[in-house]
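Office hours follow-up: a student asked to see two folded examples consecutively, so here they are.
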Amino acid sequence: MPTDVFRLDDEVALITGGGTGLGRAIAECFVISGARVVLVGRREDVLQQACQELGAAASYCVHDVTKRDAAEELIQHVEQSVGPLSILVNNAGVHLKKPAIETSAEEFDHVLQTHVVAAHNLTRAALPGMIERRHGSVLFTASMTSLLGMPLVIAYAAAKSAYLGMVRSLAVEASSHGVRINAIAPGWIETLMLHKALGGDEVRKNKILGRTPMNCFGQPEDIGWAATYLCSPAAKFVTGVVLPIDGGASIGF
């Protein structure tokens, strides 16, 4: 039995929102596992810094995922400059914290465009090559809002919940062609975004920890290694799943 089933040697991975946070953590774990990664985002300085830290296996493309007509061009650029794309991580997104009755149609649409429509466009552009080579993995970054009811995030919850339907439908369509489709659903992870969200709010912090059976926040690498597993040969018979990485929060009481 091979001992390197968790490796990603010879894989080329495109990670949207890859310069910071969970995308950056996924990129680091991919690189450690042998993959070449292409980070996608809108801020060139952030992408440059991330690539310097990740080393020679990392490169970047400045790209706005909401530009619908640019998805195929991005995939072509990656394949011409780095190699055939075998892993796509749909991780880019925006957050909106607002009561549902105060969330405008324009705001709601913007969140869905950034998450759902952009992910569909990139996946649609990447799939033909993966199907032709009969090798590929598409990973979506879902959320606890895909699984639990949370207040003040109606647009974000709608977008992240839509990912689950996309994963299941895509898995049924693509898996017979050698392309696996999965999602991860991060819980509360120690990132700058979490610290900003908590903002010294000990009551909210304690509420989160109180409903998390492991009684702690996760670390970014917890997400990175889970993503690595789902995109590795170790998960070759895994498709259409949503894997919570949440310390048990989604099943806790």
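And the second, which I mentioned at the end of office hours:
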Amino acid sequence: MRKLAAQAGVAGSYVSSVEAGRISPTIATLRKLLLVLGEDLASFFAAEAPPPEEYVFRRGAMKQVADVTRRYILVLPRRPDIRCELLDEEFRPSRREPPFENIGSDLAGYVLEGEVLLEIEGQEPQTLRAGDAFYVPADRLVRGRCVGRQAARLLTVAVPPRY
């Protein structure tokens, strides 16, 4: 647990409390822990994946994950023949700055509603509005949050780097 905590950048007592069920991690912290473990949100929350010959995915079968400031709908199931992760994301207004994250994949997004402050390591922060898009190469630190009064909604796709 100590090694996991150190690699994820959280306290060992935090990991212990999560494991014991005393607290629930935020989505950002869960993503950090899963990244260290070689997993991702889609795999972690996946139910049994539909067989490879299915190409249509109904809303009722999609997993939803949420915390106080974010909600994700895992649009595509996790299966070997699907080589990307597609998310319908909602960022709720908050004064808290989320931590920077290393997604470990190329990340692209399109803002559907609201305003998002996007910060990419080494770049000037940008305010994105409905109709704006972004792309972040793998292994860059990134964070985004809602900066308007209304929730912001976007579609994002993460594509793992080629090996």
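Two things to take away from it. Residues 4 and 34 are 10 Å apart (CA to CA). The helical segments are 2-8, 12-20, 27-36, 41-45.
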